[in-house]
Amino acid sequence: MTTAVPLALVPVVILILLGFYLRHRRFLDDAFWAQAERLGYYVLLPCLFFHGLATARLDSLPVSDLAFTLIFSTLAVAALVIALHPLMGVDGPAFTSVFQGSVRFVGVTLASGLFGAKGIALAAICNAAIVPTVNILCVLVFARHGSATPSWRGILKQIATNPLVIASFGGITFQMLGLAVPPGIEPAIRTLGTSSLPLGLLCVGAALDFSTARHWISPVAWSSFMKFAAMPIATVLVAVVIGLEGPTLTTALLFQALPTASSAYIMARQLGGDAPLMAGITAAQTVLALAAIPFVLIGITTWIAI
User: Which residues are listed as membrane-spanning (predicted)?
Assistant: First the structure.
């Protein structure tokens, strides 16, 4: 299992590097990348979230226990990040990148490779619990610390009209009501959603600017500590209280320890955050995760066994 995780992250690293190469070789016009980011945020990512949540098979799984574990651990770490903001020495837009890097996970359903068909269902529960929670939290943080400072009415409007939030709750509604996506439409939505992952990672790579890498050190360190240390520990502590164990606990731990998603960069670009820093955090965490996730899984599972 510990070797499967790094192998699943290798394609992520390759796509980020390819995006960096394409941008700096001027293979495509610079205008392409901004349009690709917009397409991903408003069309492709919403399709990914909606399809994954609407079509998941959740029979005979500990849905509520897993969801509560993920939501409460995410809220705990989010509160910790906000509390430590004064110590980070970063401005508002940069803090939004640190925050996203602390609570978001990359959209790679590694659980399917670890636990088969049951893993896909467990992964769906993880998405159903984390995606709406994280997107609402991030919109609130952008409203408070981003380059724009809207009123409370504006904040509520941002949440209500955010395409990722709408898609998440739309998928959950389909799931709860037992509705099926029409046969002719489902393959189209699935294909659009799947294409969001490689395009988003290419955009992350294209946004990398290593001339500013020296400014990444502190934000990368803060966000990576939260992602690879605080988040797994919080997840295990909540799981112990709730009674989550076995493959379900491993799946929860795995998802919470995944590096931040390419959607974080796209959201930073669209909502006034520090997008170049977000790209740096995404890339750095992806590389760090190759070693960090196996270490986290081995260390915490050993601790639980003791």
Answer: 6-24, 36-54, 66-87, 94-114, 120-143, 280-305
